[in-house]
Amino acid sequence: MLIKMTVRGIALDPITNMPIVILKDPEDRRALPIWVGIFEANAIALELEKVSTPRPMTHDLLKNILDGLGITVQQITVNDLKENTFYATIDLNYNGRVVSIDARPSDAIAIALRTNAPIFVAENVVAQAKNIEVSEEKEETDKWKEWLENLKPEDFGKYKM
Q1: What is the pLDDT of residue 16?
Q2: Scanning 14, 18, 41, 153, which has its CA 20 to 30 A from the CA of 94?
Q3: What is the C-alpha to C-alpha distance for residues 161 and 5, in angstroms, rounded to an integer?
């Protein structure tokens, strides 16, 4: 089963200082943190903040190519989690035919935001993600879990480049 989610913001992991994209369902019952790289976080943040750049960035270029070819993004799906790595697909509609493309979740999310495509997460991925051990040391794991459980909308703020 798929759960529709939206990007609620980007936060920094308090332990590693790596960016995390936070996906949440509409009822705020389930959240999925996905660790991403700095450049990917910037691409997502630019679109979240509707910052225009003088020249097309990579994800903007890809959107322009899709638009130019008459291809629409039907949806993106975070569909798997293996060895602490998330997997996603971008479903493209090309002349009535759906083509599913393997992608990193960060790229898929950046594309979904630019094309207003819905974001889905497989229910088993959300369940599996709850079991990920963030750190070997219990103290750090507890600190991280407490931080994630207590996230509030104002904690996201504006992501600075």
Answers
A1: 86
A2: 41
A3: 25
The H or E element spanning position 128 is helix 123-129
The DSSP letter of residue 54 is S
The answer to whether 159 touches 49, Cβ cutoff 8 Å, is yes
Give every residue of the chain whose pLDDT is below 70, as ranges.
131-161
Are the C-beta atoms of 33 and 24 separated by less than 8 Å? no
**CATH class for the domain made up of 2-151:** alpha beta
- Indicate the domain borders of the chain: 2-151
What is residue 136's DSSP assignment? S
Question: What DSSP letter does each residue of 63-102 carry, written as one string?
Answer: HHHHHHTT-EEEEEEEEEEETTEEEEEEEEEETTEEEEEE
CB 79 within 8 A of CB 87: yes
Cα 74 from Cα 155, distance rounded (Å): 31
Q: Residue 2 burial by CB count (10 A; 0-12/13-18/19+): exposed, middle or buried?
A: middle
Instruction: Give residue 70's pLDDT.
Output: 97
Q: What is the pLDDT of residues 7-42, one digit of tens each?
A: 999 998 888 889 999 999 988 888 999 999 999 999
Burial class of residue 19 (count of CB atoms within 10 Å of its CB; 0-12, 13-18, 19+): buried
